[in-house]
Amino acid sequence: MSTPADVTLRRPEPAFVRAVSRAIGQVSTLLVVGDPGYAPTGPDATVIDGPSQLDEFADDSVDAALVAFALADWPDAGSGLAEVRRVTRGPVVVLTRDPDRIAAHWLAEYAPEVAAADAARHPAVDGQCAALGDEVTTERLPVPYTSVAGFAEAYYGRPERLLDAGTRAADPAWGLVDELTARRSVAALRSALETGAWDDRHGPLRVRPAYDGSVVLLTSRPRLEP
Which of 40, 118, 125, 141 is deepest in the core (most CB within 10 A)? Predict the structure, then answer.
């Protein structure tokens, strides 16, 4: 039987919220696709579930848009982002994860199937930038040591937390593999912690204030007319 997810273990990370707010800037209207917890306060926000709801929006009808950790659930991230760009006259900000860097996290040593499945559901950053067009800047956002985001990198220096079933249940990545695979992965991590092998390889992470991981902030701004 699976463990119910504890929503308190997966909350908007304040450091990411601040980065999103800086990227969006001062706007009056905001379209939010994905987790509304990452939207800045102030703008008149319209929250939708996904790109299928964008047909009702006219071209350039909102000042700015935010797509927050949503692309993994879209059937076609490229066309979805192009639609978000179409309806937005100002910046489109995408808070996402780089699949190549997901696979580079230490979790892949102990739970390779979990890391691979997690990486596979996120579209490549280059493809996201191409879909957005115009002028796109890319900024990697370090994960704070005390992150409350709830995915594996939030525990980069607190690996024992991943031995807890509730912690794993809050991260969708663990639900992408079967129970036997998950148990085998947890056993491998537990063994590495008990023998000291994890600390031999990754111990310095326990005192690192932030981790340069997979979180990426993309900001698309329309080109100015000549």
Answer: 118
